[in-house]
Amino acid sequence: MKSNRIIRYILAILFIASSLSFSFLAYADDISYSYNSDTNTLTLTGSGDMEEYSENYLPPWHRYAATCENIVMDEDITSISSYAFADFESVSALTLPDGIASVGLGAFARCTSLDYLFIPKSVTSIADSSFAYDDSVLKSGFVLHSDPGSYALHFAKQNNIPFDMDNILCGATPVSIDVRGMRAYYKYIAKADGTFRVYSSGNHDTYGAVYDSSFNLIKSNDDISDSNTNFSVNVDFVKGNTYYIRTNLISSGLTGTYNLRIAPVSYQLYISIYAMLNKAGDATNLLITDALVDGSPCNGTFTIDSTETTVTKTVTYNGVVKNFTFTPDSDDYITIMTVDADNDGYVNAKDYAILRNNSSPYLPLYGNFISY
Description:
By secondary structure, the protein is mainly beta. The protein is built from 3 helices and 28 strands.
């Protein structure tokens, strides 16, 4: 009778366990993995390189490929092995951690939902057919994201893989050619109309080129002069347009570091002055038409026409004086506090009601406040 009770107890435990979400920890070489069926999340922890896998020897976590939606990896993992995440059909976005140095053959083969993959600048080796491939065909809609100037972007450009990156700004951006023959790519979205000098500085023989958003060549250069092997080009940028800059070492057998620089030759910014809507400084559609800019009346907008990288303007409104510093990468508007009748840090309908009840002369400022 006692043995029967034990058996029934064990069966009860198994029944309860079967009704709970499935999560466990296992090991594969130096990398441990766990899977949480509540969140459909695969978590890989550990350090060092993954064991190398193949089409005929898939990783042990491949059993979750059909249901997994999220993949989380430890920052101490240094490689993504071949076919590591092949057939993970429900993963739509993945960010690889800093520290990953290589991505293996077919690492994301047949990932039919994968649209977004971020590969950090630490990656310096990528095998063929790594991203969202079905055999040799790239998945439609897939975009590789990476840090500006990374090897991953070089690989993407060389293999006609759509890519994207953060914008760089005027000033100096460090370039690291970590892999022989690598080309570094950068994106610049113009905030101002003008002529800009794009050039390199350092002790290397460099090449540079500027392209439009479709990668049509605008200008390129090898040497500034016989005695200066940095490159330099002057380019006319149009506000709102996207440009790509490529730079590399002339010798494909070398690696090294130098600076990519963007400096204004002359530019124009068209600035509008708006009321502040909330404490975060968000602009309303309240255009401030009676401010002073550097002591001169302003009808809500003013132009900065300069050759300097930074320009400071003094804006006076309702007796309050504020200084604003602009660069070629500044937004095309500024916000100032105005008509905050109840002094709560917001300009809204409450202030409108107060001004209306008091027949305030500032009431006309709300003429364009169409939200109320």
